[in-house]
Amino acid sequence: MKSPRAGDIEPNFFGVSLQHANWSRQARRLQSVRFAKAARPGVDPRHAAKVWGAIQRARGLNRALVSGGKNAHSKLPSIPQHGVIAQHVYDCFVLALRHLEEDLMKTSKAKA
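^ thats the sequence. predicted structure below, dont judge the formating
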């Protein structure tokens, strides 16, 4: 996993976990969409659409944010039209990521 850039979400878990690496990548993507949807000057709106597509295609998003099996992605908007939606999705995902990190830290301590 790449080191976070300045302002990026930083991990709380530093062990080996494919799920954590995937979810951390998703959190960074969601952060990027949230930033783009905040209508900041100089941010290309096509960037948010491109990143959102990567989010929807990536593994792990449906388990962290929504339930419903195969159709879980259909419950997410095709593109978050407003910054409030992007912020909400980001907040929910980061909460799930932090819970995963807590579980991983407990598991790694139990094995040590």
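The first helix runs from residue 18 to 37.
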